[in-house]
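Discussion board: Methods & Data

I've been asked by a reviewer to show the raw model output for two of the constructs in my manuscript, not just the figures. I'm not sure how much to include, so I'm pasting the format here to get opinions. Each protein appears as its amino acid sequence followed by a line of discrete structure tokens. Is this the kind of thing reviewers expect to see in a supplement, or should I convert it first? Here is construct A:
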Amino acid sequence: MMDVNLDKADATPLYLQVAREIRRAIADGEALPGERMPLAKDLATVLGVNKNTVLRALRELRDEGLLEFRRGRGITVAGTPERGAVLAMVDDLMTFARSRGYKSEDVISMIQKTVG
């Protein structure tokens, strides 16, 4: 995860940018299923953001099923690169849609109509 693209001038919240970069790392095979993630404080230092920003991003990815939190074992990658790639595309779609005034519910409705 050394090639990180955070843009503090971007309107996208930093935690979502951090989550996007971790998704990308999983999709690109830089972080493999079963692999332990670095400590949040270490990630924050590398990324140049607050530790709470990293923790929020990690919780977001846990809720998506890409990361697993285990007491005493830290945070490990749970998802597959394929899932990460799809989630990265969904994230890009949502960013695109929001920039054009659409809400999450609007995009979900569009997808449901498309798939039937």
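Construct B, same format:
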Amino acid sequence: MNKKNESDFLPGTLDMLVLKTLSRGTNHGWGIAQHIQTVSQDALRIGEGSLYPALQRLLLDGYVEAEWGVSENNRRARYYRLTAAGKKKLADEKRSFEFLVGAIARVMEA
């Protein structure tokens, strides 16, 4: 099966996946990308060129907060966490995504 890259995501899907990952707890960029790749069983791979602009956008929109810390391998890393607005955005995105997937499924079954 073909692996998806960031250009294959539906618009807004990357933000939703990042928010969902952060709903599990604070994490740094590489950890977010690894979680998505692992949980998707390597079907979704997010490159730095997509992930960090998405994190910056989410930060500017107030959906995540960030602070500098030290990673597991003793490197400086920026850790992101979901805000209350981010939790609401995730719920809204999930509803929209489920509606879209349902609509696509109906077309494919027709």
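Answer (T.O., handling editor elsewhere):
This is acceptable in a supplement if you add a one-line summary per construct. For B, something like: The mean pLDDT is 91.
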